[in-house]
Amino acid sequence: MVKEKILVVEDDPDILNLLAWHLRAADFEVIVCQDGEVAVEAAHREVPSLVVLDLMLPGLDGLEICKILRRKEKTSRIPILMLTARGEEADRVLGLELGADDYVVKPFSPRELVLRVRAILRRSSTEGTVSVLEAEGLRVDADSHRVWVDEEEVPITATEFKLLVELMGSRGRVLSRDQLLDRVWGYQFEGYARTVDTHIRRLRQKLGPYADLVETIRGVGYRFRE
């Protein structure tokens, strides 16, 4: 069986070695980078299954790398897990808005990080989903992980796709932030509701004229309109 490839971008050699060891122990193939520009080249060359990306890097920082990867067609769908310091909340939110799928706050448990990596990679699974979902001019193909708005395909990350499928699959029913965290991200941790809100905002931007199909139910969560 071919191992899934993880690109780890971190300039601290101790953290880099720790991450690489635990990911290899979890049976991933690991590529390591300590420099932002080298990381962009590696992502384009290797097209990994996932990128673990530190925000504070020499050369290009993590936010700039995130923007570049999302702009390039070859790397636009690669999931990104950010590593951030505890006091960088504004940067975490910006990273999510730029296209990161999730984040882990330093100091972190290597075991938790491996679990997060596995959870993100599971989001690409379409098992148990209806093959095609449609609403007005919006069409979602679960088998190919593609989304069209008025017959024009829109780029979408694995997390945005999973979030949209969960909402459309529960059409007319309210899903709380905790339910979405559990179904899409695979966890429920205090303080992570902001992650859901940021992804919903990003998803609505991509749905364009159909953004209002995703309704906010204040104090409860979100609902896909019937």
UniProtKB/TrEMBL annotation:
Residues 130-226 bind DNA. GO terms for biological process: regulation of DNA-templated transcription. Gene3D superfamilies: 3.40.50.2300, 6.10.250.690, Winged helix-like DNA-binding domain superfamily/Winged helix DNA-binding domain (1.10.10.10). Residues 130-226 form the OmpR/PhoB-type domain. It comes from the Bacteria. It holds the Pfam family Response_reg. One of its GO terms (cellular component) is protein-DNA complex. Residues 5-121 form the Response regulatory domain. This is Phosphate regulon transcriptional regulatory protein PhoB. It comes from Desulfoglaeba alkanexedens ALDC.
